[in-house]
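[recover] target loaded
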């Protein structure tokens, strides 16, 4: 069975909610959208980094390295999303 427009030869792969790639998709806890492997991994890392930044801030610890890593990850996600 095909999911594309009538006459489409594309299979039953769905589009990643972030980058739009047609590939196998994965669910993340607490999210309705589904993502490709690369996007789901980066989103999971961004959630973890945000939690680590918050915890370090509350503990009065240095966060520059975590914030820099988060910024780099955000750029990668934005670039992937804009390449649709």
């Amino acid at each position: 069975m095909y999911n594309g427009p009538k006459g489409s030869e594309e299979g039953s792969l769905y589009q990643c909610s972030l980058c739009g790639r047609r590939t196998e998709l994965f669910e993340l806890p607490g999210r309705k959208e589904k993502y490709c492997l690369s996007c789901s991994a980066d989103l999971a890392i961004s959630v973890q980094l945000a939690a680590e930044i918050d915890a370090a801030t509350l503990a009065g610890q240095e966060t520059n390295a975590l914030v820099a890593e988060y910024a780099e990850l955000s750029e990668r996600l934005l670039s992937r999303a804009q390449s649709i």
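[recover] notes: Residues 14-82 form one domain.
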